[in-house]
Prior knowledge:
5-stranded mixed sheet, 8-stranded mixed beta barrel, 540 residues, elongated, 19% strand, 19 strands, single chain, disordered N terminus, TIM Barrel, Alpha-Beta Plaits
Amino acid sequence: MAPVLPRKGGQEGVGLRSGQAVSRIPGERAPIVLTLLTWSRRLIAVFLAVAFFSLLWFISEVRFEDQTVSFDVSSLWSLVLLAASASVVGFILFLRGLARHIDLEMKYVGSLDVLTGLSNRSGLMERLDRPAIALLYLDLDHFKTINDSLGHDAGDDVIKIVAQRLKRVIRPGDMAARLGGDEFVVVVEDDDVEAVARTVADRIRASIAQPIRAERREILVTSSIGVAVKSPQVGTPGELLRAADLALYRAKRQGRDRVVFYNESSESNVLHRLDLEKDLWQAMDRDELEIDYLPEVRLQTGTLTGLEALVRWRHPEHGLLRPHSFLGLAEESGSVAEIGLWALEAGCLDWARLRRARPREGLTLGVNFSSRQLSQPGLVRRVEEIILATEMEPRSLRIEISERVFLDGGAAQLTAVQQLRSLGFAIVIDDFGTGLAPLSYLRQWPVQGVKIDRTLVSNLEFDDSKLLIVQAIISLSHDLGFEVTAVGIETPQQLGQLFDLGCDFGQGYYLSEPIPSSSVEDLLARAARHRPPPPASSVA
């Protein structure tokens, strides 16, 4: 078995050394310039040989008579013709050899990635036909953020540095290639290939995780790696690439910055998610998305005050899918931005229709915005266009944002929230209590309300610690001028406790299940005829 790690002082990688234009690997052909020089020397040698033997032949034809040198003119012409013929033959041989070497050299150069000097996809595929190999498929986590924030020049610098590190950590005889973007592969060949692949993958992760200097600043980059080992079930180059890609997908799903080996038993789940992701991009074009509305009730009066828009996906094969089944996938794939804007437009159209039918109902509309959506360039402009096109009243729109965004959000998200607030929309913190963000911290954000997460409301009547937390949230929120909504009310006891604590609004199946847009007008009519009394106090 070949050593897993290179010996000290030995070659640690293959490919470019810093500053070279074309990588050199032992046993490979010379660059094209060296080829030209080599064949030029050969051509000169041919010419000299022809001249030398022609001279010998010429001397042999010279006759010395009576101290007079003479020779036959016809012999001279034969000499000229012989030299010319030899030169033409030599030149033709030179051109044939040169053309063959140029063709080989062009194929070699065509198998290299221009930016890094590593092999590219065409150079990789030949290597995948060998037995006893493992394919390591890796990409850089959140590389798009580097390109977006620092520019593509900085992104290219990071790619080149990562390529250099790959060449340093892989073993002699292993192969590193770049498929494009931030995607790299390493081919490892060994008798104990699985153990070696794991060791090499760990070395790669550790090397890439070292700070990278680009654009006069240090950048921290992590990598996710999927590994597939050649086997009877995964034998062709295409199957090996696909298996490693699936393992990489699982590595990202599990939190990134890790190594995951391909497992055939989990393939069906991954393929299901990949198919779902592909279908999700087409769902809006196929009119498969729908909006249901979750009513919001003022607890002190029992009146209906607002509706929260919830996206549903009526999948042609899997039926009606609720948000938890696909919104995480939408966030990862980037389709959540378009889905969020679609939901905003659909909700505003429904609100405008209800407003025209029941102008006295002062209902608010709640729409969820994700972290990725808030990071989208041009978001505020597109929201403005939707509001103008649908004639939505800005003061009636609530932008609901997860607490996690407020904890982890950067300057881009803060700017977007401030701009949305300046347009007159209310900003509400959703899922409050899951991230344990201090309310005082949220003062830097333009917030008007908080929604207590359902995990704190669930079993509230049986858990005194939850009751104390909810009481503290309501009290501090009111001190800071925030209105409070409790989510997930499922029992009359929970409703009574929240009423006693002074909670402003409530949502949950005990008050109303989500309803389709076609049923909203009926709900408003029933609410106007039968306005419920305030809940009974939980205090006996």
